[in-house]
Design brief:
Keywords: FAD, Flavoprotein, Iron, Iron-sulfur, Metal-binding, Oxidoreductase. This protein is α/β, with parallel strands linked by helices. The protein has 43 helices and 25 strands.
Length: about 950
């Protein structure tokens, strides 16, 4: 049972901790992390409770009621309107322990879920029965059913499968006063009458709701706009008798303001056996929207609109996906998906739809049936929420007007007027979204870093609300209102409806305990903005943050909370979160903590903060977030900055002196490797681990009797390079020189076989990574400058390519070297290649030996994030290798991380997710490839005796046998 610290709300925290089985966190770290969601707002809570079961939920709500403390419900925290945060509230995080799929009934086509069930987990549970949950937001890999019910989430395929409210059978509820009930619908008149006769509070509740509806029939019928996407306000029209007084529908979309969801029974639909995709191109988004009504009679599953500026934002953020080659000519595209019982049926439906597209003369069309190409194009669409937080020119774009909706037949005119409104305010944004439902996603570059920025925000939002209302539309078509839009509801609804919203909430939550200020009596839309207030005090910085104008504050505010980092299939990112399940160990959580450090209110110790130090301690500096995060949060860089500042002029952890200075110690060991090996294998080895901050379960490496550089000098003396051979400079990194020289020897053999003159720097070199990753930035700079001098002294032409063998060292030269040394480091960064890149670029036609073996490959995190592995795949194809590349994921060792005391369990847990099971399952004759020294070491120590090879070793072995 967790014990809270001495913090605000300590008495409540003590009581909660005494009776709950789950975690009770009222400390500064959790308050900082849970004070943000995916919105513009910031509301540090009083504390966080992660209930272990429903009894914990009941008890926590009861205690909060007794103390008069508001309760905010949270799933994955991706709410864009601010619904998952609340000032001074207790946040109930359901995702941690209440995320099970309790049952799937294939005959009834229903599933029973807990509030924290992640949508993708429900889809996996339903898939064996050929079923799925219809709504599919782009955050499907991490959004929870509780959050979807709270916001009435939709997704791309609501054209045929509807919104969440169309797919809810029953809701199991806990009211703020402790009452429990289950609601469903639609109901007959007799069923409604029976509900009024129930005893106690439940019967009184039903009586009040039915009387409320009967008194206001005309107002509700006349005052609620009818359109496919209306998630603004309470859905009071679901209470109408002609709609069966559907309480499940009436409570879906109430944003956690009326009741606590304990569980839900949802309807499932058939998963189409086959799909095809029609991509239609148009001159602009207005023309694309105008074309939609004529295409809807063909019953596409989707009619998603993407404008060219979204593609431009995607290209500005990273490399160009190959799938974009399939887009037809145009400046806006509709993604029109068809389905069928067979691939032929899906193709025929798509062909008919493509013919309909061609009837518009300005349209172009492409028909895509390959499932992988479809997946890649949908990945572009799903990444939109993160991509458009940075505009193509690099400016920041914010939510606030991100999902307005109008009748689909009026969408084209609305988009043109919306573009005009943006121009009048000198604002820019990237519109995209669910054109078939008339819903538009749009993030806007509000100038919130200027004194007038808040005024611009308010002025635009008020005029935009008036604009959408004039079209008979909704402020929100998917994300709900929250603080972002609730204040604007009177511009969409008349005063009678606004009054009914307040009455409806009071029937359910008379004490206003649940998420107050989110929808009824809302907080101002321009208050509590998380990025308006500048850091309270300037803090010194050691790194340039070149993509963020030299500002760490802007860098950490890249995180907008879309939470891809907490999804289990998000690439390398974020291994420590996947191991611990703690929000503060996610990329998002760490970004929030650093933002609060700079702000200086919740985190008050600045660079000395123990909360930030603890959260970053389990960051592996894998760089996965720098590539996998849609907005490229670069936590490895932020961690290096923090460690530098945190330990400046102070003693460091033992591991910083042992493994941070590893290149130096290994050079010393190389003078007497035999003695060092004897010590490592004796009882003294345990003392070495203790003094070095190394986990006792780790095996110290065996040191080679001869380093690579000594071997190279002997070889070169006996075998001079042939005259006229093109020189290439091999970077003898610490691992390849002093720990595993066989890798570098193999590289020399291969390169010389291909006719190159392999040279080395004139003296010892090091990329400085061990110092950089431990925050010893001054030493890292000095090491790199000495390395540059050693390269220059080699006397080679300035354009001589440099080949790196270890991906971590190569990535450091490619990316971090210019960051540390500026312009002085760029020439080396630009001519540095991986071993595979060099073979692919400088010897593309050279004959390589055939290696017709089965292989599994573990891609190093830094190669995934910085270098890429396309060249590796091409070289493997030339070898004839039957290779299976493991899904992107960290090996868990990550340089010094997995060796440090206190990290072993996390390191092993990460490795057991993908790497170790795959290696153990590989047939004995299967080659295990891993270019990273860390990956090979983790495999050697934890994979039951399997060993991994570097690509250079594999090719060299083949050469020796031919």
């Amino acid at each position: 049972m967790s014990r809270p610290n001495a913090v605000p709300g300590a008495e409540l925290a003590r009581e909660l901790a005494a009776v709950l089985r789950g975690e009770v966190r009222f400390g500064a770290a959790e308050r900082a992390v849970y004070g943000h969601d995916a919105s513009n707002y910031r509301h540090p809570p009083l504390g966080v409770v992660k209930p272990a079961d429903l009894d914990d939920v009941r008890t926590a709500v009861a205690l909060c009621r007794r103390y008069g403390v508001p309760v905010v419900l949270r799933g994955s925290g991706t709410s864009i309107g601010g619904q998952a945060i609340g000032p001074g509230a207790v946040v109930l995080d359901f995702r941690r322990h209440l995320g099970a799929v309790l049952a799937v009934d294939p005959d009834a086509r229903t599933a029973r879920v807990q509030p924290g069930t992640v949508l993708d987990d429900l889809q996996r549970a339903a898939r064996p029965y050929g079923l799925r949950f219809g709504p599919d937001p782009s955050t499907h890999s991490r959004c929870t059913l509780g959050g979807m019910i709270g916001n009435d989430a939709c997704g791309s395929r609501s054209l045929v499968w509807g919104r969440t409210s169309d797919n809810v059978e029953r809701l199991e509820l806990l009211l703020a006063d402790g009452t429990e009930l289950t609601v469903g619908g639609p109901l007959t008149a007799a069923e409604r009458a029976a509900l009024r006769e129930l005893p106690g509070r439940v019967g009184q509740l039903h009586t009040r709701l039915q009387e409320f509806t009967e008194r206001n029939l005309a107002t509700i019928r006349q005052g609620m706009p009818r359109l496919p996407r209306r998630t603004s306000g309470y859905p009071l029209d679901a209470l109408l008798p002609e709609r069966g007084h559907d309480l499940a529908r009436a409570l879906t979309g109430t944003e956690g303001t009326c009741a606590v969801l304990l569980g839900a029974t949802v309807r499932l639909v058939e998963e189409p056996p086959a799909r095809a995709l029609v991509v239609a191109g148009y001159p602009d988004e207005g023309a694309a929207a105008d074309a939609v009504p004529a295409l809807l009679p063909h019953r596409p599953l989707t009619a998603e609109g993407l404008a060219a500026d979204l593609i431009a934002a995607l290209l500005a953020a990273g490399p160009r996906p190959r799938a974009l080659d399939r887009l037809p000519a145009g400046a806006c595209w509709l993604f029109l998906e068809t389905a069928g019982d067979t691939p032929l049926a899906a193709y025929q439906a798509a062909r008919a739809l493509a013919d309909a597209v061609r009837r518009e003369r300005s349209a172009t069309v492409a028909l895509i049936t390959d499932p992988e190409e479809q997946r890649q194009l949908w990945a572009v669409r799903e990444a939109g929420a993160g991509i458009v937080t940075r505009l193509p020119g690099g400016g920041e774009a914010w939510p606030g007007w991100e999902d307005s909706a109008v009748p689909p037949e009026r969408l084209g005119d609305y988009l043109r007027d919306l573009r005009g409104l943006l121009r009048r305010h000198s604002l820019r944004g990237v519109p995209y979204g669910h054109f078939g439902d008339g819903c538009v996603h749009l993030r806007i570059d509000f100038p919130l870093d200027r004194p007038t920025g808040v005024l611009v925000l308010r002025d635009f939002l008020e005029q935009a609300a008036d604009l959408v209302a004039s079209y008979g539309g909704s402020l929100s078509g998917e994300h709900g209102d929250g603080q972002a839009r609730a204040e604007l509801l009177p511009r969409m609804y008349g005063p009678e409806i606004i009054a009914l919203f307040g009455e409806f909430k009071r029937i359910w939550d008379e004490g206003n305990l649940l998420n107050p200020g989110a929808l009824v009596d809302p907080r101002p839309l321009d208050a509590d903005l998380r990025f308006v207030t500048a850091p309270r005090r300037p803090l010194p910085l050691a790194l340039p943050y070149e993509r963020d104008g030299g500002s760490l504050a802007r860098a950490v505010h890249r995180c907008v909370g879309v939470a891809k980092c907490v999804a289990p299939d998000s690439g390398v990112m974020c291994p420590s979160y996947l191991a611990t399940g703690e929000e503060r160990h996610s990329t998002r959580g760490r970004a929030r903590l650093l933002a609060e450090l700079l702000r200086g209110e919740v985190i008050t110790d600045g660079w000395r903060s123990p909360e930030v130090r603890e959260a970053l301690d389990l960051c592996l500096s894998c760089k996965g977030c720098a590539s996998d995060c849609p907005v490229h949060v670069d936590m490895a860089t932020y961690k290096a900055e923090f460690l530098y500042q945190h330990h400046r002029h102070r003693p460091r952890p033992l591991a910083h002196y042992s493994m941070g200075w590893l290149p130096l110690w290994l050079r010393a060991v190389a003078l007497a490797p035999g003695a060092a090996n004897a010590v490592a294998r004796s009882r003294a080895g345990a003392l070495v681990k203790l003094l070095g901050g190394i986990d006792r379960r780790r095996v110290l490496p065996l040191f080679p009797t001869e380093t690579f550089t000594r071997w190279y000098r002997r070889r070169r003396a006996a075998h001079p390079a042939p005259a006229g051979a093109r020189p290439v400079l091999l970077w003898p990194d610490t691992f390849s020189d002093l720990l595993q020289p066989g890798v570098a020897r193999s590289a020399v053999e291969v390169l010389e076989h291909l006719g190159f003159d392999v040279r080395l720097p004139a003296g010892p070199v090091c990329c400085g990574l061990t110092w950089y990753s431990t925050g010893q930035l001054g030493t890292a700079r000095r090491v790199l400058r000495r390395s540059l001098a050693a390269l220059a002294a080699a006397g080679l032409p300035a354009d001589t390519p440099v080949v790196g063998l270890d991906p971590s060292c190569t990535a450091t030269l490619r990316e971090d070297l210019p960051r540390l040394l500026g312009a002085d480091g760029r020439p080396l960064a630009e001519r540095t290649r991986t071993f595979a890149e060099f073979l692919d670029e400088y010897a593309p036609d050279a004959p390589l030996p055939r290696v017709p073996l089965d292989a599994v490959t573990q891609t190093h995190c830094h190669q995934h994030a910085v270098l890429g592995s396309a060249a590796d795949r091409r070289v493997e194809a030339r070898l004839g290798l039957h290779n299976r590349v493991l899904p992107a994921g960290c090996c868990g060792l990550a340089g010094n991380f997995g060796f440090e005391r206190g990290h072993f369990e996390v390191s092993r847990t990460i490795a057991e997710r993908v790497l170790l099971p795959a290696v153990r399952a590989a047939e004995p004759g299967t080659v295990v490839l891993a270019d990273g020294f860390s990956c090979r070491t983790q495999i050697a120590q934890l994979a039951d005796g399997r060993e991994a090879l570097h690509l250079a070793e594999l090719i060299a072995r083949a050469l020796r046998t031919t």
